Amino acid sequence: MLKIIDMIFGCLAVRILSIFSPVQSDHGVVSSILIIRPGGIGDAVHLLPAVQLLKKRFPNIAIDILAERRNSSIFALSPLLRSVMNYDVPHEFLSVFRKEYDVVIDTEQWHRLSAVVARLTKAATLIGFATNERSRLLSFPIPYSHDDYEVVSFLRLLEPLGINSPQHIETAWLEVPSAAAARATELLRPLNSGKFVAIFPGASIPERRWGVDRFRTLAQRLTDEGVPVVVIGGMEDAREGEAIVRGLPAALNLAAKTSLLESAAVVDRCAVLVSGDSGILHIGVGLGRPTVSLFGSGIARKWAPRGADHIVIDRHLNCSPCTQFGYTPRCPINARCMAEILPDEVFTATVSLLNLKTPQLPNYLLDIAGRH
């Protein structure tokens, strides 16, 4: 429905505004910036290195975020923002137009309506991705590619402000609030152990789920080695979490027992995070935690973690990745790309990051780890 609304009303609004509201480009002194970030958790996490770089270049700048309720809590993991407002809270959305901004950066990759919102702010400089008609509303339309790591794509939006992408991206860019950290300490007390593996079995779509039985086998193998396991997730993951840890020693099911920020605090304490392509995975990367990630429909070259502390398992089937601009078609072969990932190889990858022992990784895992 959103895509249809955007196609009809977004295209019409672009035509009208591009005729009656000419594009500007001179931002002059930059003292305030609005960053528009609708969408999911992963986009929000990958945007924050750009926020860090902005504050480094302009230490006194005020940065506001226009997000959605489904991703806005992520921005509590950054102390660099002045305020966070939500598209889907009317009075917060309207407050954007009562403020003055020197620059608006629209980080939406495809939909046109966010570019319309950017233009309606009347900021002198509008920066965003040139993926369709939306480019007509921007002072600086920036190319977007599915071949680029998403963090790098967002960093490129800073180039019109004279900020070039760094050679190396920080290994950690999120910061857990103290209240969430204290809650994690309380929840993890039953483990009585400093080292544990966090498992997130959830996913936003069925095509990205690995399956409760496989996660259960992985948890069994880890606890047999004396490694505690903690399952995290939302209400929708509670039953799977219980099935994964049932009867296992030193295993906790915290699914549905934590807020998103508290889940982040738990991840911040783990030795390794195991997850499919998910918002929780990206939070783990942003916190600097080692990860084993399972990719299939998602575009690994854009979304998979980078660095020696991350092992990405991807079967690279002919039909994958099949996701584009956040849309994944229904899979006619029951997500074979995920089903063919075996618990033994995920266990081997996890143990290698734990440094419990030094098992020989399969050749394709070594190849994947080297590339990322």
TrEMBL record:
One of its GO terms (cellular component) is cytosol. Keywords: Glycosyltransferase, Transferase. GO terms for molecular function: ADP-heptose-lipopolysaccharide heptosyltransferase activity. GO terms for biological process: lipopolysaccharide core region biosynthetic process. The keyword ATP-binding does not apply. PANTHER family: ADP-HEPTOSE--LPS HEPTOSYLTRANSFERASE 2 (PTHR30160:SF7), TETRAACYLDISACCHARIDE 4'-KINASE-RELATED (PTHR30160). This is Glycosyltransferase family 9 protein. It comes from Geoanaerobacter pelophilus.
